[in-house]
Amino acid sequence: MAKPRDREKPGSRNPGSVTLTEVAGHAGVSRSTVSLVLRGSPLVAAETRERVQAAMAALGYIYNRGAANLRAARTQTVGLLVCELNNPFYAELTAGVDDVLDTEGFVAFIANTAEQTDRQDRFLQRMREHNVDGVILCPAAGTDGELLDRLDGWRLPCVQALRFVSDSLESGRGRDYAGVDYQAGIETVIDHLVALGHRRIAFVGGTLDHSAYAGRHAGFTAAMRRHGLADDLVLRCPLTRRSGAGIADDLLNRPQTPTAALCYNDVVALGLMLGLEARGLRAGRDLAVTGFDDVPEAALSRPALTTVATSARQIGQEAARLLLRRIADPQGPPERIILPGRLVVRQSCGSPSSSLHHRDLS
Amino acid sequence: MAKPRDREKPGSRNPGSVTLTEVAGHAGVSRSTVSLVLRGSPLVAAETRERVQAAMAALGYIYNRGAANLRAARTQTVGLLVCELNNPFYAELTAGVDDVLDTEGFVAFIANTAEQTDRQDRFLQRMREHNVDGVILCPAAGTDGELLDRLDGWRLPCVQALRFVSDSLESGRGRDYAGVDYQAGIETVIDHLVALGHRRIAFVGGTLDHSAYAGRHAGFTAAMRRHGLADDLVLRCPLTRRSGAGIADDLLNRPQTPTAALCYNDVVALGLMLGLEARGLRAGRDLAVTGFDDVPEAALSRPALTTVATSARQIGQEAARLLLRRIADPQGPPERIILPGRLVVRQSCGSPSSSLHHRDLS
DNA sequence: TTGCGCTTTTGGATCGATCCAATTACCGTG
DNA sequence: CACGGTAATTGGATCGATCCAAAAGCGCAA
């Protein structure tokens, strides 16, 4: 009614958005000086800095990172590709990544590749368009090792987490990676089972070929051989509760029934325990069962599941820190951060310690 | 060795990055035409379009969204703030959001506010700097209703998910929201418990005040009154397994012990069941217990938990779709998408149907 | 041939920051 | 007082796209 029209600068994101130039005018200095203040340069005098900051506050100035990035070629953003976000384990990893990035002023684009390489490729393409400073990648199963070379060609720093794709031969071993020592974790489990008297041990679960499978399997083989036991009882199946339950028959109808089933992860183990129960059997009494991951429900199941705790959140934090280092120094030597798993003995493997009151709650 | 030096344009993100101008040169057209092709404009002739696309492919052109956005003031990015990412429920929501954004060519910045409003504020600030087109917000507990007015002032489209902050009075009711009908879900549970003969029912869990608590509590009160029952047995506690277990004593040492405990969510219910067991009692026999959410372990616990299934992934999808509509039309009328919960009857409330073989696996 | 309308293409200005070389201010010293 | 040196500030060019008004090309009717 009164005013003729709101000033609508069409190009700007918000009608009345404040730019660095306006701040400069208000503070009585030049654009360049304001820019230096923004970036915390030690060059500006304390008195000037305060004046500029006051002006920014007074005008409600919002830093336009898009504009800054166009010139400066760094964006304070990273891409985070997880292969299965709905798995609580990866959710925890994501939270860990966010923890570190938040304190460093970075933000992450997220993508759930759902184990689909085409979705993974599409997202990486978008990450390039958005000019991220780097990516954290839990490669989808079936990812070609050549992908890493492509990332190198793009000069896009990349840290792999939890899994890594098999490196192409020519490109010198070693890439940035943060993950769990699957092999050692599995070996600990085997050692524990063997100490309990088990001799015939099956390895159960996993269909997709990736490093996390390979590491576990290597651990199984190595430990069994070390103890002079047969390492040929390997049953592959999808990583779901249902297929874990379904594999019980398979397991029990062997010529020589195993006395222990070391499962790929907790989900399969929990499923297997259900399958046993449906047949009137009980984990820990009729068959020792162990898992991997220590998901919250592992402590809760009956019998509670013996498993290997892997701190997903911490791995996320390490991966993020590693990526930030790599962004700061693209040429530095590759690092591999491998956290140990921790054996958590509960009742499912028939250990004697099984008072309900000592059961740990999440 | 051979070449004197790689051409290093310092300002550009990658040494040899290809720009729109170079594509134009290669295709023998102007910058503007290439730009039109990029945006799929119908103005360019088919023959020209093909020539440009061939040039882009030949040169390995990568679209620079940062540059585009500087001028065009839209970024094809959104912010996603979840209050508790490590909760599998929110992880599922995130996956749903990602599903929809992926098909629409958007990407999401993620943040885990961990129920901390300062972290939430900080992230929103960054989202403004990155000039996102909108945000999906699961507001942290304790979020001031005034935040939404601030977002309005910033012209930042916002869709709330799963929770909403109480609207400030002056700003006309109704904001975009996608969530679960908590109240109806709880009422269904009460109806079921009453049908089973329960008369004294406790409402257990929840400490933070937000809409998701209020909705559940309203459902409890409404349904109890509808049945002519007392609605005063409300025990608040943190949403953890441990405090769920701890509340068992509280519950059983009442003057009139309730016969049923309707828990805020599955986590509390599962904890309560453990607490009962530690006291030699059993859910479904000595006390009916119900949850909310239907997390995977609900089907797995012993006894299996009666609960209300809420499709987190679908809510994420709806929230994302809603936000995209809002971005396209900032002035349109607000929408509230409220999905119903689905009562899943299992054994923990003492229902007769309890064959192990019919138990559902995830 | 001229003029009109339609389709297709174009150049210059612009978005809001950073980079860099140059300039100014100021102080102590020979 | 000129000079060198340091500290602080500045203006112009620049990043790579979009926007817009204008122009070019072209077919057709008067």
Automatic annotation (TrEMBL), chains A, B:
The lineage of its organism: Bacteria, Pseudomonadati, Pseudomonadota, Alphaproteobacteria, Rhodospirillales. Signal peptide: none annotated. InterPro entries: HTH_LacI (IPR000843), LacI/GalR-like_sensor (IPR046335), Lambda_DNA-bd_dom_sf (IPR010982), Peripla_BP_I (IPR028082). SUPFAM superfamilies: lambda repressor-like DNA-binding domains, Periplasmic binding protein-like I. The keyword Isomerase does not apply. PANTHER family: HTH-TYPE TRANSCRIPTIONAL REPRESSOR PURR-RELATED, LACI-RELATED TRANSCRIPTIONAL REPRESSOR. Gene3D superfamilies: 3.40.50.2300, lambda repressor-like DNA-binding domains. This is LacI family transcriptional regulator. It comes from Azospirillum palustre. Residues 18-72 form the HTH lacI-type domain. The keyword Amino-acid biosynthesis does not apply. Coiled coil: none annotated. Keywords: DNA-binding, Repressor, Transcription, Transcription regulation. One of its GO terms (molecular function) is transcription cis-regulatory region binding.
